[in-house]
C-alpha cells in the first residue's frame, strides 16, 4: 500500500449520533498515512465538529491535478449523487458509507467501516461502473455538470397546471405526454424517482433508459424502456411558460424555447463494492422483498 494515497471526503450535515462514525473514518485513514482533502460543502460542519483536523485542504471540484485516488461519500444516496458531480469525467472510484437512511447506492453500513476501509486501502474491492445520462441544451443550463447518475426530469412548476412534453427518440416522434412531468432514468435511477412513478426496475448493466411519465393524464400511458444508445429529445408546452428541468438533485427553471435532449454520457460513475453484498442483496434489503409476518 503506497504511503502517498490521497482520498477526498464529502458529506453533509451530520448529527451527534453519526459524528463518532465519521471520526472513525478519519482516524483510520490518518493512521494509514493517507492524505485527506475535504469538500467545501462538508468543510464548515466538519471543521467545527473536528477542530483537530481543521488543517485539511478543501476542494470545490476535483481535477486531475488533485491526484485523488478515491472519494469517500459519508451520508446517504443523495450525498453519493453529489460525490459523482465532484468526480465527473475523472471517474475516480467512490466509496459510499451509509450514515443516512436508505443507502441504495451508499451500501457500506456504519458497523462495517473498519472492514471497508481495510479492504479499500488494500485494494480488496470491485469497481461497479454505472452509466450516466448527459443533457444537451442550447443554453448551457447546468454549465460544466450536465450529467446525472439517476435521472433527468422535466417537471411543471409548483403552481402550474400539467404540461405537455413532446418526446422523440432518435428524431422519430414517440408521444406527447400530458402529465406533471417526464423522467428519463438510468438503470441506477430506475430504483429512485422513476420507481415511485410506476417505472420498472432495470438491472445496472442493462444498457437501457426508462422513460416514465409523472402523474400522466392518460392512464393508458406506461413507462417505456429504450436503448441507451438512443438520443431522446423534447419540446415542452404548457399554460405557464416556465418549467423545471433536473439532473438528480440539480434543478433549473427554463422556458419553452429551450432545446433539450439526453443521451448516455461518455464517462461512467465508478462505485466501489465488496464481496459481502451484491445488487440482488441490496434489492431485497432496501425494498423489503420477502418481508412478511408469515415468514
Automatic annotation (TrEMBL):
Transmembrane segments: none
Main location: cytoplasm
Catalytic reaction equation(s): NAD(+) + ATP = ADP + NADP(+) + H(+)
SUPFAM superfamilies the UniProt entry points to: NAD kinase/diacylglycerol kinase-like
Cell compartment(s), UniProt: Cytoplasm
Active-site residue list: 77 (proton acceptor)
A GO molecular-function annotation: ATP binding
GO biological process: NAD+ metabolic process; NADP+ biosynthetic process
InterPro entries: ATP-NAD_kinase_N, ATP-NAD_kinase_PpnK-typ_C, NAD/diacylglycerol_kinase_sf, NADK
Enzyme Commission designation: 2.7.1.23
Cellular component annotations (GO), alphabetically ordered: cytoplasm
Enzyme class, spelled out: transferase
Requisite cofactors: a divalent metal cation
Residues the entry annotates as binding NAD(+): 77-78, 150-151, 180, 191-196
Protein name: NAD kinase
Function, as annotated: Involved in the regulation of the intracellular balance of NAD and NADP, and is a key enzyme in the biosynthesis of NADP. Catalyzes specifically the phosphorylation on 2'-hydroxyl of the adenosine moiety of NAD to yield NADP.
Keywords of the record: ATP-binding, Cytoplasm, Kinase, NAD, NADP, Nucleotide-binding, Transferase
Amino acid at each position: 500500500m503506497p504511503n502517498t494515497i490521497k482520498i477526498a471526503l464529502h458529506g453533509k450535515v451530520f448529527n451527534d449520533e453519526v459524528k463518532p462514525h465519521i471520526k472513525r473514518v478519519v482516524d483510520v485513514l490518518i493512521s494509514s498515512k493517507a492524505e485527506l482533502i475535504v469538500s467545501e460543502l462538508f468543510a464548515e460542519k466538519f471543521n467545527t465538529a473536528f477542530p483537530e483536523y481543521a488543517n485539511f485542504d478543501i476542494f470545490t471540484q476535483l481535477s486531475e491535478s488533485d491526484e485523488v485516488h478515491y472519494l469517500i461519500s459519508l451520508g446517504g444516496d443523495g450525498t453519493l449523487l453529489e460525490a459523482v458531480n465532484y468526480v465527473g469525467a475523472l471517474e475516480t472510484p467512490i466509496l459510499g458509507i451509509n450514515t443516512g437512511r436508505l443507502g441504495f447506492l451508499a451500501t457500506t453500513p456504519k458497523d462495517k467501516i473498519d472492514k471497508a476501509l481495510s479492504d479499500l486501502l488494500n485494494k480488496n474491492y470491485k469497481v461497479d461502473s454505472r452509466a450516466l445520462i448527459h443533457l444537451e441544451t442550447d443554453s448551457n443550463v447546468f454549465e460544466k455538470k450536465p450529467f446525472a447518475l439517476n435521472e433527468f426530469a422535466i417537471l411543471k412548476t409548483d403552481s402550474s397546471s400539467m404540461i405537455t412534453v413532446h418526446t422523440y427518440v432518435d428524431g422519430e416522434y414517440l408521444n406527447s405526454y400530458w402529465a406533471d412531468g417526464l423522467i428519463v432514468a438510468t438503470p441506477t435511477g430506475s430504483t429512485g424517482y422513476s420507481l415511485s412513478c410506476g417505472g420498472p426496475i432495470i438491472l445496472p448493466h442493462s444498457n437501457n433508459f426508462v422513460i416514465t411519465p409523472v402523474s400522466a393524464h392518460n392512464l393508458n400511458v406506461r413507462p417505456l424502456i429504450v436503448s441507451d444508445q438512443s438520443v431522446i429529445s423534447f419540446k415542452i408546452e404548457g399554460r405557464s411558460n416556465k418549467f423545471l428541468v433536473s439532473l438528480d438533485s440539480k434543478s433549473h427553471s427554463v422556458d419553452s424555447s429551450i432545446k433539450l435532449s439526453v443521451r448516455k454520457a461518455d464517462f461512467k460513475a465508478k462505485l466501489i463494492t465488496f464481496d459481502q453484498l451484491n445488487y440482488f442483496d441490496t434489492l431485497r434489503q432496501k425494498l423489503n422483498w420477502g418481508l412478511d409476518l408469515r415468514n
